[in-house]
Amino acid sequence: MQQQFAVFGNPIAHSKSPSIHQHFAQQFGLEIDYQKRLSTAEQFATDVMEFFSSGGLGCNVTVPFKEDAYAMCQTLTPPATRAKAVNTLFVNKEKQLCGHNTDGIGLVNDLLNHQLDIKARHLLVVGAGGATRGILGPIIEQQPASITLANRTYHKARNLAAEFDDLFAIHTSATEQLDVAHKPDLIINATSASLSAEVPISDISLLSKHTACYDLAYATEPTAFMQWAHNNGCDQTLDGRGMLIEQAAAAFFTWTRLQPDTAAINADFASR
Asked: How far is CA 4 from CA 32, 34, 60, 70, 93, in A?
């Protein structure tokens, strides 16, 4: 019998998660049925519970339901507790709905795959929404030299940074009047600007040949943020496809206790 998995989101038609998880399952000879599930804010909780009550083993959660998933859970892993957002759901032996967040470890693993060790490096993270919530904890664990968190609405950056005060002193700024503590070695776009072909920052003085720019979004072509960085002298620009694969691998392990090899699928995605 096929094991049942799913990803919930809105929109969801574009999701590559089913093909990624099928690839992982094939590595271990597992037969799975991984489906895309379109939901709404009103129906999300009901849809998730119906999925598990009908035999589902695990599901992913994407935009815009990660904070809704967090609110539903009876048990949370430390990364989910810190992020206050959940992208991976499962039911434990006590029949409790459990939430985990694999976004941050997915990003860190993809950075390391590209030889971007962020220890002792200066980082600029643009955006203070749910995506940033998921990545800050694992980024801090890598011991960067500094983190500047910038957001169009400044108080959101300040409030989010305050939630991590016990771990790291994050410098904050408004994107309109960008003030960085140090010239960044790595700039991470964690906004949704790329979905509308916009660039969230415009200060080219932040960039140099040695600056790496990473967009959590991905598309068939380089995102607007990647194009802006490349056109202004930045040699290394990456999108979120590798992060998608790595966070999926961490979710797959959470459900099955099997650790998939991501190298082949990363190479396949890179060639597209």
From this structure: 6, 6, 12, 21, 17
Q: Are residues 133 and 234 in the same domain?
A: yes
Give the separation between CA 182 and CA 171, rounded to whole angstroms.
10
Query: Could you give the number of structural domains in the chain?
Result: 2
- Domain identity same for 74 and 117: no
Phi and psi at residue 153, in whole multiples of 5°? Answer: -95, 105
State the Cα–Cα distance between residues 149 and 195, nearest whole angstrom: 20
> Active-site residue 66, yes or no?
yes
Each residue of 212-245: pLDDT tens digit?
999 998 888 899 999 999 999 998 999 999 999 9
Asked if pLDDT for residue 34 goes beyond 60, the answer is: yes
Per residue in 164-175, pLDDT (tens digit) is 999 999 999 999
Give yes or no for a contact between 146 and 122, defined as CB atoms under 8 angstroms apart.
yes
Match 């006590």 to its residue by tokens: 94
pTM assigned to the model: 0.91
- The single residue of 16, 66, 84, 119 carrying the catalytic annotation is 66
